[in-house]
Each structure stands twice: as structure tokens, then as C-alpha cells.
What we know:
Number of helices: 13
Largest sheet: none
Radius of gyration: 19 Å
Number of domains: 1
Oligomer: single chain
Helix content: over 70%
Number of strands: 0
Low-confidence stretches: 1-12
Order of helices and strands: HHHHHHHHHHHHH
Distance between the termini: 6 Å
Shape: globular
Amino acid sequence: MGTGDLHTEASSPPPRFGLGVILAILAAVGFSTKAIFVKLAYLVAPIDAITLLALRMAFSLPVFIAVAIWSSRQQHVNSLHRHDYGLIIALGFIGYYISSLLDFMGLQYLNAGLERLILFLYPTMTVLLSAVLFKHRITRRHIIALIISYVGIGLVFVHDLGQQTTNMILGASLVFASTLSYSIYLVGAGHAVHKLGTIRFTALAMIVASIFTLVHFGLTHNINALQLPAKIYWLSAAMAVFSTVLPVFMLSAAIRLINPGRTALIGSAGPVATIFMAYLFLGETIVGLQVVGSILVLGGVLLISWRRSA
């Protein structure tokens, strides 16, 4: 699709284009609220990452089971083979269980704004992984985008390093590892999504992740660990609804309505939303260096993603 085609679409968008844009924005904001809910929960009680993640998954699991059953009963649905089950289990494990666990652990030491910026590096990591694993060519545009993005992260990190207490480097490392595991998931998910469809595959992968999370909790905690303040349960339920279930399906709908590239570009609003909400609800500061770093990160990701949307 060339520039002229983009201009034509922009001047006469399809009737449901506006709905797709709204859903993409809501999905980006919804995913961004996860860090806010996690940080608020950590302020309420001394809860560890796996307990909070288990509560989130427990509240989300019934919905994903229902969606998986519904999607499997649709017409023209491909049957699952042994290879498909293995792929779903592997990708659900690394993409939603490991990635989420590392992220929740990192948020114990990191502010919400920096966490979201590090997570937003996943398009750059996906490009690098594709080059290493599938010999995809890295262009000059990719190199420039990578440099811009990581300089931006460096600026924000340097600022926060002067403001934060101990273990900030540990937190950043955990979130970076979370981003890397999610990028591996994205690189491997293409075949499964093509065969199973986005909604069905996502529901099945989330079921796998939920099972791993709940088993992890069951093996490492006893029932007394669930004796928590009611506010923790409310925050976990809100995280399940507004940061997990609704954004997942709004994102799927947006992809169908306005294509994956445009949806990814609109998702760039996510880190900005997190920084603003962290300021509003958590009292995190916003200073010039953070703004400059955030702009660089978003600019680098947009530079990598722009051609995909064309």
C-alpha cells in the first residue's frame, strides 16, 4: 500500500473505521492501567507478585474459558492437532505467564511510567529477534529507531535512578526480561494466530497462562496467603476486567476494523496514558527529562512500526 492509498483511505474511511480507532485507544489505555492497579495493590498490603497475579488470572479465567468454548463451536473452525497444543502451551507459558510474572515482580521496585516505557520496547525487540531467528534484514530505519528508543529509555532511567531507592536496576531488569519474553511470544504467535484466529488463540493462551499461574501459587503458598484486605480483591477484579479481558477483545476488534499496523500505532498512546495516570493516582512526578525520553521511545517505536501500517 503506497502513500496515495493511505491518503485515499484517510479521506474516505470505511463506516466502522471510527469505531476501530476508539476501540484501539480504549485497549491501549486499558492495558496501561495494569501498572496502576498493581502499584495501588502494593500500597494496600504486603502482597507478593505471584499472589497478585494469581488473583488477576483467577478473575479472568472464567471469561477466557467461555470465549474458548464459544470460538471452538463456530463454523469453519480448524481442529487442533498435537503440534497446535504444544505451540499454545509454549506460547501461553512464555507470553502471558512468564512475561506477566516478571512484570509484576519488576513493579515492586519500579515506577509505573518507566515500567510501561520499557514494556513498550517490544516492537524493537521483535525486529531484533526476527533478524536473529529468521534472518530478516535490519534496515537503516530499524537501526535509527533502535538507537532513538534506547537513548530515550536511558534518559528516563538516569533520571529515575536519582529519584528511586535500592533495587531499581533489579526492577528494570525484570521488566526488560518481561518485554523480551513477550517479544518471543509475538515472534512465535504468527502461525497460531493465522490458523486459530486471534480471539480463539488468545483465549487458549490465557487459559494456559492462568493454569501455570494458579499451579505456581498453589505450590508456593498456602490458603492463608489469600487472607487479604477486601481492597486487594477489588483491585484484582478491576485489573482482570479493565486491564485484561476488555482490552484483549477490544484490541482484537480494532485489528479487524482498522488493521494491525494502525492498531499498533494507536497503541503508542499507552505509555503516555500510564505516565499521566501514575501522576494522577500514584503521585509520580513528571519532569522534562522524562518527557524527552518518552518522546524518543515513542518516536523510535513509531519509526519501526510505521512501514508495517502502510
